[in-house]
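#onboarding

Welcome to the new folks! Below is a worked example of what a typical request in this channel looks like: someone posts a single protein sequence, and someone else replies with the predicted structure as tokens. Don't worry about understanding the tokens yet, we'll cover that in week two.

Example request:
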Amino acid sequence: MFWTRSFITTLKEAPESAESVSHRLMLRANMVRMLVAGVYSYLPLGFKVLSNIEAIIRDEINKTGALELLLPGLQPLELWQRTGRDELMGETMFRFDDRRGRKLCLGPTHEEVITELAANFVKSYRDMPFTLYQIQTKYRDELRPRFGIVRSCEFIMKDAYSFDRDRKGLDEVYEKMRVAYENIFKRCGLKFVSVKADSGFIGGDLSHEFLVQAESGEDTLYRCKVCLEIKSEKDAEIENCPHCKSDMEKLSALEVGHIFKLGDKYSKMLGVKFLDESGAQQVVQMGCYGIGVSRLIAAVIEQNHDLDGIIWPKGVAPFDVLILPVNISDNDIMQKSHMLHDELEKKGFKVLLDDRDERAGVKFKDADLIGIPARITIGNKWAKDKKLEIRQRRSKESKDIEDSMLLEELNRCLG
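Example response:
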């Protein structure tokens, strides 16, 4: 990919309305653009990151045996009235009548829709267990959208739903999902904590939420200043570490995932029943498992940045390596830049070549801003000694190397 064809136009400063570091950097790097408050377009650079996160999620969730599907965003309000959650959601739900007079809503979540679907499928104990999931846009009429894509009116979520004949089966899939979530967040380069949580308007008798330290978070964590033990505010305000008795510091935290043991809450209300081996009618046991997919982009940036810009972990980075020719009017430099671009792409690397006619200082600043893990600079050292400079974005360490060392050093930078 060439920069001049990449639709990346960086900003020196973020708008004053940008409240958090992730929001400021996403705007400056031209990853997203606001259409109206709480509604964002994902531009090519941001969409690449979003797609990488979705790929990680799909890989880990598929390993649990879950099957992907896609449910309607447009939902009959009557379905929500049957569970009473239309009143719980209140004005947060987008509601309207269509031209036929049907009362509809834009789905803020999909428990009702998936349960209604299962009610038409499950008849016998032989029909279970199964887990279905989707990655889809949700809609909530937030009174006060904040922090860019963190709290928005339109956002992307992965939501999975499990259906089991008994509590034992629910417990097993719940544990599988908990492990999958840990793997997802680790692969995204996040430091996180899992805590027991209030099930809120989703319901159920047990839930865990996954929190990351983030400036834009609206939850609270307490971290020990000495042993780094972390507790949530669910444990009430904590002054001393329960582990080493040292002082605790209060941190803002962002929820990036939540898993629920729903039990029979929705299956009872919406009639998801089955016949067991003895012919007796039983109620299906359900679980629900959500990840804020678009919110993960902000979480990754909040935990992976410095004063110069974003520092992408390899798993979610839009590109692996940036090739930066210092002088595009030098034919030898540009020939080498294009050759490297093509060779690395053939070897499976995601490559961006900065072919802009810009000053070197501008290119270096933009390289740090968009945060690609490795940078190869081709400049005077190549012209004089046939040496390339390779630089790791995270450590800022750079080396002058010969061609023969490039792959080894590149893999080290991306390791």
